[in-house]
Amino acid sequence: MELKHIYDTVKETFDRENHAREEGLSLSRDTIQFCANSIRAAHRGDADESRRLLTAARDNVRHAHALLEPYPRIFYAGFLQDAEKEYAEAACTMALIEGEPLPLPDDLDVGTAPFLNGLGEAVGEMRRHVLDLIRINKLDRGEEILGLMDDIYYLLASVDYPNAITSGLKRTNDMVRSVLERTRGDLTTAIRRLSLELTMKELEEKLKG
Question: pTM higher than 0.85 for the full model?
Answer without folding.
Answer: yes
